[in-house]
C-alpha cells in the first residue's frame, strides 16, 4: 500500500469543503459509529462525480502523528456533485476500543480517487469534545459496574428552582444535597438543607446535615433524621423513625408512633410520650413527664422527677420514686420535685383496673414498709396486712429481737415443730405446744399496783359463791386439742356467779379467767378460817362445858353418896 502527498493547494481545498457531522446514536454509552460526509474533488478542484473512490480514515492518539487508535477503509460512490457519506465504524473498525476520555484525538483522511489502495493524504484535524469526547465522558459515568462520580462546588452553581411536582432525581452541588423520589413541591433551594438527603414520597430535609426518608417525612432540624411515614424530626440532633413519629426537641428520639417533645427525651412504641427533659417512654400509651423519668409498659406514667414506672397503668408520682406491677394505688398527691417523709418511693401494684387499684407492697420515704393488700400508709417500719410465714429448713424459725444494737437478746419462734415460744437469756422461758398447753420456766406475775387501780371494792360472800361452783373432768370435742382427761369449770356456770371472769368471743364461745378466781378463793379461805376459828372457840367452850359437866356429875355423885349415909344413920337411931 502506498500513500502519496497531494499538492498543498489541493489538500487545503479538499479539507475546506469536507463537512464532518458527528452524531450520537441516542444511547448513553460510547458510540459504535458516526457519520462522515465530504465532497470529492481532484487537484484542479473539479468535482469527482458519479465515481467509485476509496477513503481511509485513521484516528491518532494525542497528536496528528501520534499512534493509531483506529483505522478503517471504505469504498464509496460519489454523487453527481461529488458528495459521499461514510459510517465510521461500519467497515470493521471498533470505536468502542477508543478511550475517548483518556486524551485528545486527531482524524487523518486519505483518498484514492481511482478506488484502489494508493492513498493520498488529504490532511489531519483534531476531533473536538463535541460530540465525541463529551459523549464518551458522560457515557463512562453511567457504565455498568463502574462508579458514578459528579463533581461540584459547595456554594457555587445555579440556584435550584422550577423543580415542580412529580418524580425527580436531583444532585444539588450548591448545597451538596441529594434528592430522589416523588416531590410535591418542596425540593426548591429554600427548603433544601446544606449537605442534606431526602428520598421517598413527599419527604423533605430542610435542616443542615439532615436526612429524610420515606413518605411525608420531614427533617427540619440540624443533624436531624426522619425515617418512615409522617415522621418529623424538627429540632437539632433529633431522630424520628416510624409512623407519625415526632421528635421536636434537641437531641430527642422518637421510634414508632410516638412523641419525644423535650430535650434528649426518648419515646419508643405506640402512642408513647416523653415530655420530661432527658426522659424515656417505652411501650404503649406510656408517658414520662417528669425530669429524667422512665415509663415502660402499657399506660404507665412517670410524673415525678427521676421516677420510674414499669408495668400496666403504673404511676410513679413522687420525686425519685419507683413503681412496678399493675394499677397501683394513686390516692396520694405528692410534689413531683420536692421530697416529703410521707412520699411513696417504692410501690408494687396488684390492682386489676382503674376502679380496683391496690398495692402488694409500699415503701415510704421515712422507711416504713407496708406488705399486703392496701397497706398503702404503713405506720411502722414493717406494717403487714395479713399473716407472715417464717421458715428455716428444720431449724428454729422465728424473729430475733434486739433493743441495744448489740447481740440479739430475745427470740420468738418455733421451739420445735409442735411448740412455739420465747427464748431469752440463753434459755426457753415460755412456750405453748400444739395442744394448747402452756409452759412457763419462771413465775407468772401480773401488774397489781394500787396506784394503777381505781374503784377498789372488797369481795362479799366469796365462799358462798365458790361453794356454788362445780368442778368437772372432761375431754375436748376438738380432736386437734389435747385429748387427755381435762379438769376445769364450765364457763356458763361460772358466768352466772362471776360474770366478770367470763369472756365471749365473736363466735359466741366463752372463756374463763381462772387467775381471776384466785382472789375469790383467798377470800373464801379467809371466811373458812374465820369459821374455823369460831368452831375452835366453840369446841374449846364445849370442852369446858363437858369438863364442867363431868365435874358436876362427880359432885352430884358425891352429894348423892353423902345423902345416903345420912339416911342410914338416921334410920339406925
Considering the chains and any ligands shown, give keywords for the structure.
5-stranded mixed sheet, 17% helix, single chain, Serralysin-like_metalloprot_C, alpha/beta, Arc Repressor Mutant, subunit A, 23-stranded mixed sheet, 573 residues, Head domain of trimeric autotransporter adhesin, Immunoglobulin-like
Q: Which strand-content bin applies to the residues?
A: 25-35%
Tell me, briefly, the overall form.
Answer: rod-shaped
The description of the largest β-sheet is:
23 strands, mixed
Report the C-alpha radius of gyration, rounded.
61 Å
Overall pLDDT: 87
- Residue stretches low in confidence (pLDDT < 50, at least 5 long) are 6-30
Protein name: Head domain of trimeric autotransporter adhesin
GO cellular component, one term: outer membrane
GO molecular function, one term: sequence-specific DNA binding
InterPro entries: Adhesin_Head_dom (IPR008640), MRF-like (IPR051577), S74_ICA (IPR030392), Serralysin-like_metalloprot_C (IPR011049), WH-like_DNA-bd_sf (IPR036388)
